[in-house]
Each structure stands twice: as structure tokens, then as C-alpha cells.
Amino acid sequence: MTLQEKLTETIQYIHNQGVQEVEFGLILGSGLGELAEEIEDKVVIPYANIPHFPVSTVVGHAGQLVYGTLAGKKVLAMQGRFHYYEGHNMQVVTYPVRVMAGLKAHSLVVTNACGGVNEGFTPGDLMLITDHINFMGANPLIGKNEDEMGPRFPDMSKAYDESYRNVAKEVAASKGLHLKEGVYMGFSGPTYETPAEVRFARIAGADAVGMSTVPEVIVAVHSGLRVLGISCITNLAAGMQANLNHEEVVETTERVKAEFKSLVKETLAKL
Predict the structure, then answer these.
(1) Which residue from 22, 155, 167, 217 has the highest number of Cβ atoms inside 10 Å of its Cβ?
(2) Is position 61 annotated as part of the catalytic site?
(3) Which residue stretches of the chain are H helix?
(4) Domain 20-270, CATH class in plain words
(5) How much is the pTM?
(6) pLDDT tens, 154-195?
């Protein structure tokens, strides 16, 4: 079965559940899925019911699509994403972005929890992603290109939409939020980075490190979607604090999620 044939079946199923127009796709990362609870007139579709959809295996990821209205916009939110480290190939990790594009979304808002590499960051900071470094050892576009989906060689020079970032900065300033900006470096995981890898990331120009986002954004750009990326800095990366654990990630997102939710909602309202 070709990718296009799978997508046709998936999209037909999603339409049959009552999903109509989609303006924005939302990918909600670790501990940030609660934003989907604020979607109005919602249609909830568990991943397990959707043809050709993988299932999320990570704690803090609910595993369902939520469709409806958020901040006056028609959104399709992923409560829980797929990671390369779960054993999925890159095409599977990014399949939901293909679905969003197939549902005619024009933009993607992608969020994540990640480690701070920039020495000026502290846990709980929110960071607008300005650019990324793909250090995951794979790319979702490897293989035959399906020309109707996008170009063979996508231009990544403006992957993260500058005008969207400016709107988010205006919203943050109006709320008194000190919003950081920086480069996100994607690692495969599931191990946290070593202190040496963190030093390497800093020298390479990264401000934050994580295990997601990069593949989804590559496919979003390939599909012609505009992208807004927001990271929650949940911990300082290895070598910058005593130790690292997933509980801290969830705990930090818990602490800042009100700020995070209002930033996303108020930015969406103005896009």
C-alpha cells in the first residue's frame, strides 16, 4: 500500500468521525497535552481506532486526536506524539503530520519538553524555536519522493515561521512572560545526552536538546505547512545539573503549563 493510499483511508475515517475543516495542527509534547482539554465542541478519536495510525507508548502522552475550536481556530491536536526511540521508523513518526496536511491544515504548532543547553536558561523557561539541528541519524524524507506531497529537496532555511514567532513574542511581552528563543537539536534518544554530547551541542550552536520535533517539522515544511515551535525547558542538560529523570520533566511542565497554555492560546487567536 502506498503512503497516499494509507492517507486516503486514514483521512476518510477521520472525516467520518465528524472532523471537518482544520486550520492548525497541534502536537502536544510531554506533560503539555492538557491544552487539548480546552478545545471546544470536541471530537475525540483514540489513535488505536484510526487506520494506519501508530500508538503512543510514553508516560504523559494520552494517545488520541482531539478536534474542535481553540482560540477561535479549528484545530486538530495530537495528545501524545510518536518518537523515533519507540522503534517506529521516521515515516511512522511523521505520519500524523501528513494526515494534518491531507486534512488541509495550513499550519503546525509543535511543542516539546526539552533540556536546556544554553547557560542562560533555567528549568521552566519557554523557548521559541528559531531553527533546528537534525542529529537524529535519520530523515523522514529518505526514500522515494511522492511529488504530489512535496519537493524532493525542501528548503529548510525558514522552517520556523518568523511572522508567527513575532506574534508569539508580542503575546509573551503583553503577559510579562520572558520568552527565550533558540535552536533545538534533535537526538534519537532514549538515553539522555551525555555531558560530552551537551558540550558538543553547545559548540554546534544548540540552545536546547530533545528527542522529537525535528522529524515532524521536516515533514511539515515538505508539505508546505507554516510552523510555530515552542519548547518547555524542563531541566538543564547533562553536566549542568546533578542528574536527569523523566519525573522532573513532567513536574516542570506541570509547574509552567498555565503559562504555556495561555501563550499558545493567545498566539493562536492572533494568527
Answers:
(1) 217
(2) yes
(3) 3-16, 90-93, 95-102, 162-175, 195-204, 214-222, 246-270
(4) alpha beta
(5) 0.95
(6) 999 999 999 999 999 999 999 999 899 999 999 999 999 999
